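Quick one - inputs below.
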Amino acid sequence: MRSVNATVIIDRHTKMNKNELTVELSRQQTLRTEARIGLTKYVLALGAGLVAIKLILDGLQPLVVGQSPEAITALAAVIREFHLGSALGYLWGAGATAAWTIERKGKKRAIQKKSEYQGMVESGEPNRSSSGLTPTGDTPAA
Amino acid sequence: MELVLFGLGLFLLFVTWRWMLKPSLLDATRDKLFDLRESMRAYFIGTKEGLEHPAYKDLRMLLNGHLRYTEDLSFVGFMLTVFSAINHREDFTAVRDKLDKKFNSHTDSEETRRYIKEVRLIASAIMFEYMVKTSLLAWLFAILGAIVTFVKNMKKLGVLLTSGDSHIPWGRAVAAMLMVSFTTVGLGNNATARETLENSALHAL
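Output:
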């Protein structure tokens, strides 16, 4: 929920007609339902994440229990499954992620600079209003 | 061991979607909205009233609302609001008409009115596109709708394919198909959808 001044909300509501009040009521109900669905989605995603981590840890467990025959068999299984093609795939993923991170930092820097210059150009303009986003173009923390 | 790799793959897929692809889509959408705001500012500078024009003030507020609301926009929320609008059609129509009237009251010029309408439509379309791109449910819905639309319009498509036109803009055709499929079931870029998106945007600031 946005942190909106309570006075503004009251002021907004007192100026509403019947239709606007119905629409506003419906909007608030929608927001509540959306929040409940959002929470469910969050819990499900968290559960899926935990299952994924458990799968990884369960599979890796035999590798870290010592030099037992089971550990050697497990290590052999990893090597057998981890084909050269897969290794290249993971390397490609890591490279693409690194490139994306560098580009993103550059983009955020460009947005910040643009925001500064735009502020200079538009300062003093009539009817100028801001989106309220951060200088890097992100949604501000609630 | 396959399970380990499967788990790792799932985890990486989730990380890529949540912290890489989705933020990039969000930024790309906001870039489009900022560009629209810039072009709108340039348009009003060219008018007689310039940036003192009341329509500029309201349109800028609306676009700022869209910019601020983009990240919170969800397909589920949109659907819930559209269904609510269908249940309270009279109230939603009255509010929409009031907003339309407010925008139209700013000018007597038909050209400026057309321009205002165009900016509002483009802004809603940008938001709609982001919403569909970032929701698996919306994709499933759009694909199902597209199949229905495809079957319904097979005859027309056959004419298009046999017309001898070698240059068919497939990218645009697919996007249009998705929009048509949404509109078919009342969720497209029609007045209700625009009103839904604008109502949320105007409450975001």
